[in-house]
TrEMBL record:
Necessary cofactors: Mg(2+); Mn(2+)
SUPFAM superfamilies (UniProt xref): DNase I-like (SSF56219)
Cofactor note: Probably binds two magnesium or manganese ions per subunit.
Keyword flag Hydrolase: yes
GO molecular function: double-stranded DNA 3'-5' DNA exonuclease activity; metal ion binding
Site (Important for catalytic activity): 218
Residues the record lists as binding Mg(2+): 7, 34, 146, 148, 243-244
Its EC number(s): 3.1.11.2
Catalytic center residues: 107, 146 (proton donor/acceptor), 244 (proton acceptor)
BP-aspect Gene Ontology terms: DNA repair
UniProt xrefs under Gene3D superfamilies: Endonuclease/exonuclease/phosphatase
Protein name: Exodeoxyribonuclease III
InterPro entries to which the protein is assigned, alphabetical: AP_endonuc_1, Endo/exonu/phosph_ase_sf, Endo/exonuclease/phosphatase, ExoIII-like
Length: 253
């Protein structure tokens, strides 16, 4: 089973690229972040695509803002359902409850400005509490999405490693660290512990992507039992339609 996370940066602008990517990569599960569309605005080419159950938490908070989606291959689970959790803000979260695990798809607030930074820290705290409850129930968990935090120095290019920059602050890094302390594994980093150029997002600067001046902010975090079943991870650098690259994990279930 492969699970992808991809910040699509506008599903209407990326509908042709997404359709081609789905046909080429054939993901079992893909979490889409920053869809920037309400459910009724999802392009017909995506809404009617065959082979997937589709779930949307669209941008009702603000038109053309935020929003997440989840595509699950038909027949993958005998019994699974999707919901928006009670802590969700700004249409940023979907939860898939499947027999083998609970998957949380997330688009963490960026946190620009003092007010929105507070929203970000509150969201991360609520997300942590939600995961802790799942673990207390004995559930295995996959947390997949755009975390909007470069966790360590190795996760951001030195040209952009500026103290105090949003996404690099001690409080937000500590908040992500607290998620991992629950027992989650940052599996892409664990399997690539010393890789310094492992980035998933690049700023809109001239040649930033070509020079790989990026950040690793798109992640998949897994509980112990699932981490032990990982047979591979990847960052799909060939897909360049968005400013984020798709990131995946392969599970042998």
């Amino acid at each position: 089973m492969n699970i992808y996370t991809w910040n699509i940066n506008g599903i209407r602008a990326r509908q042709e690229a997404l359709s081609a990517w789905l046909e080429s990569r054939k993901p079992d599960i893909v979490v889409l972040e920053e869809v920037k569309a309400r459910e009724e605005e999802i392009p017909e080419s995506i809404a009617s695509i065959e082979g997937y159950r589709k779930f949307w938490n669209g941008s009702s908070f603000r038109k053309g803002y935020s929003g997440v989606g989840l595509l699950v291959r038909d027949g993958l689970f005998d019994d699974a359902h999707c919901e928006v959790p009670p802590f969700d803000v700004e249409n940023r979260t979907l939860v898939l409850r499947a027999p083998q695990f609970t998957l949380i798809g997330t688009y963490v607030p960026r946190g620009d400005g003092a007010e929105h930074y507070a929203v970000k820290l509150r969201y991360l705290a609520d997300l942590k509490a939600f995961i802790a409850d799942l673990l207390a129930e004995g559930r295995q968990v996959v947390l997949a999405g755009d975390m909007n935090v470069a966790l360590t120095e190795i996760d951001v290019h030195r040209s952009q490693n500026k103290p105090g920059a949003t996404g690099l602050r001690p409080e937000e890094r500590a908040a992500i660290g607290e998620h991992l302390e629950l027992g989650l594994h940052d599996i892409v980093r664990e399997l690539n512990p010393d890789k310094k150029d492992l980035f998933t997002w690049w700023p809109n600067w001239k040649f930033a992507r070509e020079r790989n001046l990026g950040w690793r902010i798109d992640c998949l975090y897994l509980t112990d039992a699932l981490a032990g079943k990982v047979s591979g991870v990847s960052v799909d650098l060939d897909e360049k339609s968005s400013d984020h690259a798709p990131v995946s994990v392969e599970l042998s279930l």
